[in-house]
């Protein structure tokens, strides 16, 4: 399945397109603050499959339409069949997040408005997060008597530490973009009016980078807390050796000696 070069119809619950090497996924249920329903979860998984199969994708950008990035799961959809619908939501979202984590291409979340519940998990699952001033973050799960999903309990303690993660999870208190920056949950905070342009500059910079090296860096950094030192040194050696055989490595070395910026092709 080829990844589209333009957004889908405005009625689609997920808009997906590719431009200048960047695959865009935009959650598109603005009236529901982009709360995840079954259709969105399935569309997200399908779009992530298409991205994973598209060798022209060199960066990925996740964003939300309307007033929010994502306000978690759609509770209205779960009222009649809580366990059945929850499983369908989780299957789609987790399937997509697994694929994004395995990509060589860096994945950026561009967030604004509300980033709560599963929305926070999706953001934590990305490689980098850029946030608009005024964005509100929250675990949200304790308020509905639930534990978390969408990788929240994997990403949060790795970023903020177990003790702080326990506090955020148990108390469920909201925090703003400045606090999220202090905690390391987001990488950058920009004025709301500049979010789109700042995001575009960031993803274009990543899309012009050494994609194969990014893939190895993602794998190494994500595995670093599980590996012992000997195992990780072996993994680093294998990764560097693979990179040394790429066209981008040859270009990077040549550019260094030519005293010019490298022009990477992602190969």
The global form is: globular
Strand content is 5-15%
Major beta sheet, strand line-up: 1-2-3-4-6-9
Helical proportion, percent range:
40-55%
Superfamily at the CATH H level of the largest domain? Answer: 2-enoyl-CoA Hydratase, Chain A, domain 1
| Integer-rounded radius of gyration | 19 Å
How many H/I helical runs?
11
The number of domains is: 2
What is the CATH topology classification name of the largest domain? Answer: 2-enoyl-CoA Hydratase, Chain A, domain 1
Secondary structure class reads: alpha/beta
Kindly provide the name of the CATH class of the largest domain: Alpha Beta
Q: Cα distance, first to last residue? A: 21 Å
Task: Explain what you see.
This protein is α/β, with parallel strands linked by helices and 267 residues long. It folds into 2 domains: 14-207, 2-enoyl-CoA Hydratase, Chain A, domain 1; 211-258, Orthogonal Bundle (Lyase 2-enoyl-coa Hydratase, Chain  A, domain 2). 48% of the residues lie in helices and 15% in strands. It contains 11 helices and 9 strands. The protein has helices at residues 38-52, 75-78, 82-102, 118-125, 152-160, 162-171, 177-183, 195-207, 211-223, 229-244, 247-258, and strands at 14-19, 22-27, 59-64, 107-111, 114-116, 128-132, 136-138, 175-176, 188-190. The strands form 2 sheets. A 6-stranded mixed sheet has the order 1-2-3-4-6-9, sandwiched between helices. Strands 5-7-8 form a 3-stranded mixed sheet. Strand 2, helix 1 and strand 3 (59-64) form a beta-alpha-beta unit. The longest helix has 21 residues, at 82-102. It starts with 13 loop residues before the first strand and ends in a 9-residue tail after the last helix. The mean pLDDT is 93.
